[in-house]
Amino acid sequence: MKAISIEDIKGIISDISILMDKNRDELIRLDGAVGDGDLGLTMSKGFRAMANEAAVTTENDIGKMLMKLGMVMAKTVPSTMGTLVATGFMTGGKAVIGLDSLNSMQFSKFFSAFVEGIMQRGKSKPGEKTLIDVIYPAAEALRQASGSEQDLAKCMQPFYAAAKRGYEDSKQLVAIHGRIAYYGEQSRGKEDPGAAAALLIVQGIKNYIEGHA
User: Fold this and answer.
1) How many domains does the chain have?
2) Which residues contact 134 (CB under 8 A, 6 or more apart)?
3) One digit per residue, pLDDT tens: the chain, 213 residues?
4) Which domain holds residue 39?
5) 166, 132 contact by CB (below 8 A)
6) For residue 135, what are the CA distances in angstroms to 49, 115, 116, 125, 163?
7) What are the backbone dihedrals phi and psi of residue 41, each rounded to the nearest 5 degrees, phi first?
8) What's 178's domain CATH number?
9) Three-state SS sequence of the chain
């Protein structure tokens, strides 16, 4: 796969939505252990709204479409995680305005901006036991892979592997953001629900692109 089209973006959002629906109860369980337990509902509802909007949009600019989808999520689920993910899509979309398809380097540009937007909005950085510990290393792996590989599908394995490794490593970090931070040192060894949701986003991207290579 040399590039992904607007139709592919629609498919990616749909695949992420399906994953969020399938893992809704698990996200509720993880969030309930350290927070208010609504993350599964937030991600399921938010991505379903995005998928529904993507299915009917007539936008032919990928950047503008991604920004619009981010706004849909922000309006649908104005929670902390909903707002962060929405900001990621809006910031990432802004980085690729004017394009009707994304090659590997352009998709990497979108995802790096996606991560940067979330970091700025959440005032967070790697090592603080958040979704950043999943998506930041994934963005770095994608940037490196896309620099030498034109086939986007071949970039997906290092992209997902970095996210998975970041997720596993994050379990041993001490949280300083969100409700899980109330546990202080006791948060070490616990799973961060936001990181789990972020891993599903990366997995949805990987599943779609590899499945349509």
Assistant:
1) 1
2) 163, 166, 167, 170, 195, 198, 199, 202
3) 889 999 999 999 999 999 999 999 999 999 887 777 899 999 999 999 999 999 999 999 999 999 999 999 999 999 999 999 999 999 999 999 999 999 999 999 999 999 999 999 999 999 988 999 999 999 999 999 998 778 999 999 999 999 999 999 998 877 776 667 656 666 676 788 999 999 999 999 999 999 998
4) 3-211
5) no
6) 22, 6, 10, 11, 6
7) -65, -40
8) 1.25.40.340
9) CCEEEHHHHHHHHHHHHHHHHHCHHHHHHHHHHHCCCCHHHHHHHHHHHHHHHHHHCCCCCHHHHHHHHHHHHHHHCCCHHHHHHHHHHHHHHHHCCCCCEEEHHHHHHHHHHHHHHHHHHHCCCCCCCCCHHHHHHHHHHHHHHHHHCCCHHHHHHHHHHHHHHHHHHHCCCCCCCCHHHHHHHHHCCCCCHHHHHHHHHHHHHHHHHHHCC
- Residue 155 near residue 145 (C-beta atoms within 8 A): yes
Q: Which residue type, as a one-letter code, is found at position 20? A: M
Tell the residue number behind the tokens 């290092």, with chain if given. 158
